[in-house]
Amino acid sequence: MRIMRGLILGVALLAAVPAVADDMRRETVRFAPGSSSSTIKASVKGYQTVQYALSVTAGQKMNVQLDSRNTSLYFNVTAPGADAAMYNSSIDGNGTSITIPSSGKYVIDVYLMRNAARRNETASYDLTLYVE
After folding, report:
1. Residue 113 lies in a domain
2. Rounded to an integer, what is the distance from CA 20 to the centroid of its chain?
3. For 16-41, how does the pLDDT look when each residue is reduced to its tens digit (9 = 90+)?
């Protein structure tokens, strides 16, 4: 009986993994030829997260601005290989200018805070990325 319960629990957990994975969308940001900026118009719903990867060179300045009518929408910026965000807009505000310490792909995660995600809210947004 214990083995059967364990087997059922294991199958249930494996079935849940694709549902969690579907809540993550990954996109690579490439600027148009001759441009150093881009504005992305998109939306997230519930627990969905969108990860934008942007290749940046050490010494450049990366400007990130997130605009939305939903006050529970935020972003994090994470350096290549880092475990924690180097910028968290839920603490520091929905706009930043970061001098890039090392070259690589930086990730900008756009997400709803848990209170809004639990209510399955949808947030449309404009994410502006500018590198100088």
Report:
1. yes
2. 15
3. 433 444 599 999 999 999 999 999 99
Q: In which domain, by residue range, is 98 found?
A: 23-131
Could you tell me the two tokens for 46? 């519930």
CATH number, domain with residue 123: 2.60.120.380
Q: Of 66, 21, 50, whose CA–CA distance to 111 is shortest?
A: 50
The amino acid occupying position 127 is L
The single-letter code of the amino acid at 123 is A
Say which DSSP state 32 is in: P
Assign residue 68 a region (left: φ > 0; alpha: ψ between -120 and 50; beta: otherwise).
beta
- Residue 5: which H helix or E strand, with range? helix 2-21
Q: What is the pTM of this model?
A: 0.82
Q: What digits encode the pLDDT tens for the residues 70-83?
A: 999 999 999 999 99
